[in-house]
Amino acid sequence: MKYWLFLLTIAVSGSALPAFSHGTDLKYRPVEAMQIQANYDSGEPLKNARVTVYSPQDSETPWLTGNTDENGYFLFVPDRSLVGNWDIKVRQSGHGKITTIPISDRTELVNTPQQWSSQGVYSPLQKAVMAIMGVWGFIGTALYFSGKKRTKTNART
Fold first, then answer.
1. 78 versus 27: which is more confidently predicted?
2. DSSP strand E in 1-94: where?
3. Cα(146)–Cα(2) distance, rounded to whole angstroms?
4. What is the predicted pLDDT for the residue at 114?
5. HSE (CB half, 13 Å, CA atoms) of 52?
6. Nearest to residue 29, comparing CAs of 97, 101, 117?
7. For the chain, what are the domain ranges?
8. What single DSSP character describes residue 114?
9. Measured between alpha carbons, how far is 53 from 49 in angstroms, rounded to an integer?
10. Predicted confidence band at 113 (pLDDT cuts at 50, 70, 90)?
C-alpha cells in the first residue's frame, strides 16, 4: 500500500511542477580584451563560475584561472605572441562547457558589441529526447517500486 502512495506522490508532483534542467551556453566577442559570457541555456548567467584559460602552446597547464562575475562575464587579455586556438573551460556545480577561440596575428581585439559567437545551444530535437528520457526514468522507477514483494522461504535441513 505504501508503494502506491509513493507512486501517487510522484505522479502528482511530477505533473504539477515543471522540470528544471539545463545545459550551458558560452558566448564570446572580441573587445579590448577577450570577453566571455557564460549562461545556462535558459539564459540565466553562470554566476561566479570557475574559468580556466589554456594557451595554444600548452593545452594541459592553465595559462590563467579566474571566476565569472555576477552576470556570467569573464574578461582576459590573450598574449598576442601566442597565436592559435585558446581553449576556455567554464565549470560550476556540475555544469560547464569548453570553447575554443582562434587568435591569429590578424585577429582584431576591438569593441564590437554586435559580434557574438555562440556554441552549444540544444536543438529542439535534443530537448525533446532529454524530456522523453526523463519521463522514461520516472516510469522505470515507478515500475520498479510497484513490483510484488518476494517472500523469503525458510530452508530446512
1. 78
2. 24-30, 34-40, 50-54, 64-67, 73-76, 84-92
3. 10
4. 44
5. 12
6. 117
7. 4-119, 122-157
8. T
9. 13
10. very low
